[in-house]
User: Fold this.
Amino acid sequence: MADVRTVKLSDWGRMQIPGTLFCFAHRGYRERATENTLEAIQHALEFDVDGIEIDIWNIGGQLLVKHDRRLGRLIAGSELITDLCPETLREMLLPCGGRVPTLREVLEVVDNHAQLNIELKGPNCAALVAAELESYVRDNGASFEQYLLSSFDHRQLYESLQLLPEVRRGVLIDGIPLDLAACAEPLKAYSLHLSLDFADAEMIADGKRRGLKSYVFTVNSTEDLHLMSAIGADGVFTDEPKLVMNYNASKTAEVLMQQHLQPPEEMEGEPPAQVTTPAVSSQSGSV
Assistant:
């Protein structure tokens, strides 16, 4: 397991098995613990997911991990979370019994086990996130390549580019712009993060021409996994990490079976006679 993990972390842009999808656990594993909690993240990591996605707000100068701008869905109340003191929000219990974590706590739990996609949800996050990542990487020997900053607020992504260009940027888009993926170029982005409702083969193809990965949110059905793979997506954000990992395992098994049944191709530059062996003849007959 240690060797496999080292390979994963050495190259986040590694070659994937054809048909498989990079799996981001959306806010952790939400069906096993409250979203965006350390518990949900730990459950997702148990499935050896490729990445974890979390949401970040600047609350009184502290980076807290939460999705909604108001209380009400997971914590009683109706206040804007940006109107609360960070200590007050941290004291409130979530449905699973956990508490709203800080970004630093998430960094420590994820450690080097997966990529971490940090979505900047609220205003004025970019500078704090840059400082936190610089501090964590320096103190823990981590790699900037492990992190990916995303946001619908492209101004904050641009600020992140100025402050910490070593950390990659993912452009969140909920629609299909007239100029397709062009908005990613001034941000020197690594990836497009596209809504499932607007996932489009032409948009993805334009992104690929610009050297961009394409990740789609939020994909929770096998049918949509097949569709996203068919239109060229590189990965998905999902509430069902087990579903995606099982899908990838199935696709990997199919590819390995095909490779086992298919005769080896002739080596480039070598005469056919050099690769025509009894073993090849036997495999060819079984296809």
